[in-house]
Amino acid sequence: MSRTDHYNDPDAPPANSVVPSTTAVVADTHGRIVLVKRRDNNLWALPGGGLDLGESITDCAVREVREETGLDVTVTSLIGVYTNPQHVIEYSDGEVRQQFSLCFATNLIGGTLRTDDESTDIRWIDPADIDDLPMHPSMRLRITHYEQHRPHPYLG
């Protein structure tokens, strides 16, 4: 299924769903972060995805990191809450989802880096090198907030 991110687009279709989701920043001992190249929009992104019934939001982040990267993590802190109603994701099946994502910092505890069926590539990347990567502005914002080591989570 393909997707189109509409970001501050006055011609975007109206949202017809909201799904709580997570993204996670996973850093190695060199300060590099893991990014996946998404199959559905061909953009680089933090690992993450939608909340399943019966799981906590932090369990969702841990599960999504494991599924999308092969890495095992624990959640250490909340980077921010991202609920911009002007950011909607249009899927080819007709769903138009309003963004509702919590981004977490994590601690890497194990695993082996690998792609899954939702991605075409995966890499450890120095945050200083992401400017040249095709990436949605909302992902860049999360990485910026992570790098700022803000005393309080972003709320927006």
Secondary structure blueprint with pairings:
Layout lengths: L2 E5 L9 E2 L2 E5 L7 E6 L5 E2 L2 E3 L6 H13 L1 E12 L4 E5 L4 E3 L2 E11 L7 E7 L11 H12 L5 E2 L1
Parallel strand pairs: 2-9, 3-10, 7-12
Antiparallel strand pairs: 1-8, 3-6, 4-5, 4-11, 7-10, 8-9
Distance between the termini: 28 Å
Number of strands: 12
Our count of helices gives 2
Describe the largest sheet.
Answer: 5 strands, mixed
Which residue ranges are poorly predicted, with pLDDT under 50 across at least 5 consecutive positions? none
Average pLDDT value? 95
* Alpha-carbon Rg, integer: 15 Å
Strand order of the largest sheet: 6-3-10-7-12
* Helix content percent band: 10-25%
Helix and strand content put the structural class at: alpha/beta
Oligomer: single chain
What global shape is seen?
globular
Task: Describe this entry's structure for a reader.
- With 156 residues, the protein is of the alpha/beta class.
- The chain is built from two helices and twelve strands.
- The protein has helices at 57-69, 137-148; strands at residues 3-7, 17-18, 21-25, 33-38, 44-45, 48-50, 71-82, 87-91, 96-98, 101-111, 119-125, 154-155.
- A hairpin with a 4-residue loop joins β8 (87-91) and β9.
